[in-house]
Write a structure and sequence with these properties.
The chain contains three helices and seven strands; from the N terminus they run βααββββββα. The chain has helices spanning about 20-40, 45-70, 125-135, and strands at about 15-20, 75, 80-85, 85-90, 90-95, 100-105, 110-115. A four-stranded antiparallel beta sheet has the order 1-2-3-4. A three-stranded antiparallel beta sheet has the order 5-6-7, with no helix packed on it. A hairpin with a 5-residue loop joins strand 6 and strand 7 (about 110-115). The N and C termini lie far apart (about 60 Å). The mean pLDDT is about 85.
């Protein structure tokens, strides 16, 4: 009688790095520049339009700088918990918007937080690994969808 090796259904935890997206930073600068241009192209008086345009441009640049200065974080998706930098996440949900992966969770103080993986920070293989490793979330039945 041949002996067979034992197999396990448990899989290794998925480890992914979240890091700031250069594409997002470029989009924030572009939005600030377009807002400044739109302000200057509007019928606002020039003494009012120039400061507003400067604020829009500098705010877009500030948002981009803040995004790029965010520190990288490691997420581990295991069978028992989802962890971000070693801390278990409460109410962690993963949503997909095309190639974007959106992680929503609550931090230790109960504040809602989110992390977004853009295509330049998570390649196709990483997206596939994340989809396969994420625990299956069964949708809750909607009582309104039943016929009376």
């Amino acid at each position: 009688m041949p002996s067979s090796t034992r197999s396990s259904n448990a899989s290794a935890p998925c480890r992914l790095e979240w890091r700031p997206s250069r594409r997002l930073a470029a989009a924030l600068v572009l939005i600030g520049a377009l807002a400044a241009w739109a302000t200057l192209a509007s019928e606002l008086p020039l003494p009012l339009a120039v400061p507003i345009a400067a604020v829009a441009l500098s705010y877009g640049a500030w948002l981009a700088r803040r995004e790029l200065r965010s520190r990288p974080q490691w997420m581990v998706v295991a069978a028992d918990a989802v962890r971000l930098d070693g801390v278990a996440l409460d109410q962690a949900t993963l949503e997909w918007r095309g190639p974007l992966a959106l992680l929503r969770y609550r931090d230790g103080d109960g504040r809602p937080r989110q992390r977004i993986w853009w295509p330049d920070t998570l390649d196709a293989a990483g997206r596939r690994e994340l989809r396969l490793a994420w625990p299956v979330q069964a949708p809750t039945p909607d009582s309104r969808s039943m016929a009376p």
